[in-house]
Design brief:
- This protein is of the alpha/beta class.
- It has two domains: about 190 residues, 3-Layer(aba) Sandwich (Rossmann fold); about 90 residues, UDP-galactose 4-epimerase, domain 1 (Alpha-Beta Complex).
- Helix content is about 40%, strand content about 20%.
- It is built from ten helices and 13 strands.
- The strands form four sheets. It has a seven-stranded parallel beta sheet, with helices on both faces. Strands 7-10 form a two-stranded parallel ribbon. A two-stranded parallel ribbon has the order 8-13.
- Helix 5 links the parallel strand 5 and strand 6.
- It is globular.
Length: about 300
Amino acid sequence: MSEILVTGGCGFIGANLVRKLSHDGEKVRVLDNLSIGKKEYITGVSNVTFLEGDVTRKEDISSALEGCRAVVHLAAQPGVADSIKDPWRNFQINVGGFLNVLIACYEKGVKKVVFASSNAALGDQEMPINETKVPHPISPYGAAKLACEGYASTFSATFSVKTVVLRFSNVYGPYSRHKQSAIHRFITRAINGEPLEIYGDGEQTRDFIHVDDVSQAIVLALEKDVQGIFQIGTGTETPLARVAGLIRDISGGASAIEFKPARKGDMKRNYADISKARSLGYEPKISIEKGIARVYNWYKSL
């Protein structure tokens, strides 16, 4: 059985996906430079081979692809803030790295690539967002994701590399200690008894999706004979203030909620119409209440 390559497989989504693929009986190869991810996140998982390498180096990608039938490309520089600080570096890693993957797949005859995109590629939109919206990214991070979506489409049309773009909503779950997401910040501050800081008025909304539901979507994208773009979320709009309140209550209610000035590049509202993804058989299963309780307990167990 040929293997599935997961770039960034020691990161947050990668560590969860690798477990899912291994549980399903797949042989998995992980390529990660360990700048963010941790090798111990996948240590002991069966049918997994780890390769230390970087997607910005063509030779690393080419070597990792030997004997693989598909790629899930998760390796990236995450987050809006870092992309604003250094747009060029964000471009080199996120766009240059993905282009290296696509070229190597063409050269090696790998026919299926699943790319982890983001709602940030669309920017501010009338809600809910869907695959027909005209993108207007408002951050370098979003612009890089949009550029990668363009390259994915091009390689499907010109080089016969079947690409599936999954635009993730706001993903949360275990193995996310390095993330600077709202849920990560709220949980760590709640555990430490610190105030839960919200940038803005708290009414800004996100479509928070548990990483197990994201892994489900990735597996479907690998299995189904499809290509193109799919919105992956829950279809539910949740204000940040509500999320902070849930975490405060789970932690015992000791932490206050404090509001800070809004940050540039942050979207006011964001949630997805997942009708197209449902046509693949995708259905989110984990509610925000259940998901946050799971993640809080994981953090507490560390």
